[in-house]
Amino acid sequence: MTSQRDLKVAILIMIIFLITGIICYASFTPPAPEEPVRMMFQNKAGKVLFTHSVHTGDYTEDCLDCHHNIEDDETYNCSECHEETGDEDLLSRADAFHAQCKGCHEDIGAGPVECNTCHSL
Q1: Which distant-in-sequence residues (6+ apart) come within 8 Å of 4 by Cβ?
Q2: Looking at per-residue confidence, does 100 or 6 come out higher?
Q3: Against a cut of 0.90, is the pTM above it?
Q4: Fewer CB within 10 Å: C terminus or N terminus of the chain?
Q5: Alpha helix locations (H) across 28-102?
Q6: Nearest 5°: phi and psi at 71?
Q7: For the purposes of burial, counting CB atoms within 10 Å of the CB of 91, is it exposed (0-12), middle (13-18) or buried (19 or more)?
Q8: Cα 45-50-51 angle, rounded to 5 deg
Q9: pLDDT of 28
Q10: Does position 30 have pLDDT exceeding 90, yes or no?
Q11: Which H helix or E strand runs over 47?
């Protein structure tokens, strides 16, 4: 049979391990990846989850295939140019995404092209 003293020592050791684990978990977080892994685009038609690593690893190696605005290794937010301004010469952000994403899916014959396969509610 276990003595009270042994039980208290065992509980104390478990508490020390628990505290050590929590501190290590909080202190040594993994570094953020250089490239985004996934991005969630919010819009009126429903959220679109884009997995960047799948597209760059399986379909393209060149960033310029999708990003036309890279200058000196600096990218810009799509909304900086593609705004809902009514300018007929420049596509809105939504139209630019549809042309780029859906157009690529149709060209290579892979990926979703129907609205509800990308947009979730």
Answers
A1: none
A2: 6
A3: no
A4: N
A5: 52-58, 93-97
A6: -135, 125
A7: middle
A8: 160
A9: 82
A10: no
A11: strand 47-51
